[in-house]
Amino acid sequence: MRLLAVDMDGTLLNSDGRVPKANADAIRMAQKQGKQVIVCTGRGFQDALAPVRDAGIVCDFICMNGAGYFRRDGKLEYKKTLSYQKIDKIVELAERFHLVTDFMAEHGSYTISSKAQFLKCYVAGILLPMADFEADMVWKRFKAVRYDELKSKKIDIFKVSVIHPIPDVLRTVRDILEKEGGLALAPSHETNIEITSDRAQKGIALMEYAKKHQIPEHEIMAIGDSGNDVSMLSLPIGVTVAMGNAMPAACAAAKYQTKTNDENGVAWAMEKWFL
């Protein structure tokens, strides 16, 4: 094994949103052995960097479900953004079904939802359910804009997340978007859908990264827990591992399963299959 691709929320991070010492130590040991580690996350770069940097880990990042690859110094190496033709359809559905929206750009997130909508989702426990943030801190992560303003500025949008408390509503939205075509749709929780270009998926980005670094498929290991990890957990690579707390789709895609993110599952898996 020469390359480890590891998801963040629900995987590398524990329920407190931190990298446990055991996970950080295992990653540093792998890097000392000359192995490569890349974080593959649905987060934007700055959100992804903070807990990794706090744990003393230095590595590259595949962000926003594969829509952007950032070097460890923060430089964006490539991007695969959504067309505004596709975003128009997403916005139409957001307005029809009263979805909370998150438009992810290179330097932060935008929303066309109101603060009241955000707070309602926060109180219901469906906004960023995998991490513990205060309500005001959540709202400060976003720039509230009108959609026509966002579109007129031609801001590159890497990923759109739509959120709703009723899974059946999201299933209806997903069915409509699947017929639209040209999109990759993946949940990180039952109350959201993460939407990217069909060219922007963790599995695709990971294989491009491996090719660039001349690492063959059988020397790659991937670990994840949610629907947005399925594209890399289903790859024909050396080792694929679902967390003990993983969603059913991730478990079905992976070859093996490790302990939960609160039991240092990444470190446990690395000891068994990577180091």
Would you write up a description of this structure?
With 275 residues, the protein is α/β, with parallel strands linked by helices. Helices cover 39% and strands 21% of the residues. The chain has 12 helices and 14 strands. It has helices spanning 8-12, 21-32, 45-54, 84-97, 115-124, 135-140, 147-152, 167-180, 202-212, 230-233, 248-253, 265-273; strands at residues 3-6, 36-40, 60-63, 68-70, 76-79, 100-105, 108-111, 142-144, 159-163, 183-186, 192-197, 220-224, 239-242, 256-257. It has an 8-stranded mixed sheet with strand order 5-4-3-2-1-12-13-14, sandwiched between helices. A hairpin with a 4-residue loop joins strand 3 and strand 4 (68-70). Helix 4 runs antiparallel to helix 8 (167-180). The longest helix is centred in the N-terminal third of the chain and has 14 residues, at 84-97. It starts with a strand and ends with a helix.
The shape, in one word, is: globular
The helix content, as a percent range, equals 25-40%
Strand fraction: 15-25%
What is the number of strand segments?
A: 14
Task: Provide the gyration radius in Å.
Answer: 18 Å
Order of helices and strands: EHHEHEEEHEEHHEHEHEEHEHEHEH
Summarize the biggest pleated sheet. Answer: 8 strands, mixed
How do the strands of the widest beta sheet line up side by side? Answer: 5-4-3-2-1-12-13-14
Write the layout of secondary structure elements.
Layout: E1 3-6, H1 8-12, H2 21-32, E2 36-40, H3 45-54, E3 60-63, E4 68-70, E5 76-79, H4 84-97, E6 100-105, E7 108-111, H5 115-124, H6 135-140, E8 142-144, H7 147-152, E9 159-163, H8 167-180, E10 183-186, E11 192-197, H9 202-212, E12 220-224, H10 230-233, E13 239-242, H11 248-253, E14 256-257, H12 265-273
Parallel strand pairs: 1-2, 1-12, 2-3, 7-8, 12-13, 13-14
Antiparallel strand pairs: 3-4, 4-5, 6-7, 6-9, 9-11, 10-11
Helix pairs in contact: 2-12, 4-8
